[in-house]
Design a protein that fits this description.
The complex is a heterodimer. Chain A is mostly beta strands. Chain A is 0% helix and 49% strand. Chain A is built from no helices and 11 strands. Helix content of chain B is 0%, strand content 59%. Chain B is mainly β. Classes of the chains: A mainly beta, B mainly beta. At the A-B interface, strand 4 and strand 5 of A face strand 5, strand 9 and strand 10 of B.
Chain lengths: 113, 112
């Protein structure tokens, strides 16, 4: 079956631009997670959804970061006024329920110039 | 800020060797532990869960020591295909959330 998909796979943004990253989780998966992975680091938790409810956004680094999952399936991570330090791979993961194995998408590599 | 510490390596080992990685964690309330594998420029994939009693999956053995707050991964008879970065992960759940905390990863290169 289809895994987690993310788009775009690569995004180059000029500093100050807004970007929107999309995640299509595995069909039927209740839980959805966003992570940020900088070069040479492990993924860092950003936010967690259970269906359409955003239950934890404690990892979002600033109020420029916003995530939504309005219908409990597709999710969008938006970054406003991008900064160079936002350059990273943004990974989305989904799981059947919260504590289950998480399946990761291929990530979106964001480069802010 | 890091609550999980891993030796970043790289570990360069010949085929057939046995290699072990350790990972220490600081939060004693950690509930679940995992090892993930990440190939270069790919997404992380679950390798195995880690239980207090230890668990084995083929050539891979994972161990958890709660008293000393570390987890370990042992790979026997290394194959070229084992070359990857290995990430230790612990999970905290509470207040309706599940947070995975990843280590930086240990890079393994298996050499012919």
């Amino acid at each position: 079956g289809a895994g987690v998909s993310q788009s775009p796979r690569y995004k180059v943004a000029k500093r100050g631009q807004d970007v929107a990253l999309r995640c299509d989780p595995i069909s039927g998966h209740v839980s959805l997670f966003w992570y940020q992975q900088a070069l040479g680091q492990g993924p860092e938790f950003l936010t967690y959804f259970q269906n359409e409810a955003q239950l934890d956004k404690s990892g979002l680094p600033s109020d420029r970061f916003f995530a939504e999952r309005p219908e409990g399936s597709v999710s969008t991570l938006k970054i406003q006024r991008t900064q160079q330090e936002d350059s990273a791979v943004y990974l989305c993961a989904s799981s059947l329920v919260g504590g289950d194995e998480q399946y990761f998408g291929p990530g979106t590599r964001l480069t802010v110039t | 800020r890091k609550e999980v510490e891993q030796d970043p390596g790289p570990f360069n080992v010949p085929e057939g060797a046995t290699v072990a990685f350790n990972c220490t964690y600081s939060n004693s309330a950690s509930q679940s532990f995992f090892w993930y594998r990440q190939d270069c420029r790919k997404e992380p994939k679950l390798l195995m869960s880690v239980y207090s009693s230890g668990n084995e999956d083929g050539r891979f053995t994972a161990q958890l020591n709660r008293a000393s707050q570390y987890i370990s991964l042992l790979i026997r008879d290394s194959k070229l295909s084992d070359s990857a970065t290995y990430l230790c992960v612990w999970v905290m759940s509470g207040a309706g959330s599940y947070q995975l905390t990843f280590g930086k990863g240990t890079k393994l290169s298996v050499i012919p």
